[in-house]
Amino acid sequence: MRVPPFHRYRRFSQISAVFVLGMVAGSVLYNSIFHAGYSVLWRDNQEMRLEMEQYRKDIQTLKKYNNTSTVIREIKLRAEESRDKDGEAALDPATAKEIVVKMTKDLEPMRGRSMFEIDTDGKLARLLLDGKIYIVREKEYAVSIRTMLVMEGVLQIWVEIRPSARG
Predict the structure, then answer these.
(1) Is 41 helix (H, G, I), strand (E, B) or coil?
(2) How far, in Å, CA of 125 to CA of 119, rounded?
(3) Residues 117-157: pLDDT tens digits?
(4) What are the domain boundaries of the chain?
(5) Dist CA 117 CA 127 (whole Å)
């Protein structure tokens, strides 16, 4: 049996190899764009789920304490932007939201308390939360309370969240 000379098929094999490499490169590019878009969509979905859960709790509390104006009806936690040594954000928004949700669960006993007794409740919140470590996605984050403000039944707390020194 005779083997045909390869030089006849060299041009065809080069063209087909370039075509196959182009297909592979195109599929890699398409897959990376698809996953980047999906990642953004997933992050937005997580944030919206957390916000929706917070709104449900706020509505339930507002219905419960509808007629009383001197109690804490709503707790709003605000995470201050903390920067690392390079000037970049220390944590992503989804992680900050998860930590805020965990802190809100820890502060749930503050709902329904009198606004005029906030001095003792504020000390209690500081003792409970200041320097507390939360674990999110196998990383430890330390929380420090910066400011607490009560106005019109809303307790607003500004916190700084940064990666823990021990983790």
Answers:
(1) helix
(2) 10
(3) 777 766 777 777 777 888 888 888 888 888 888 888 888 88
(4) 32-163
(5) 16
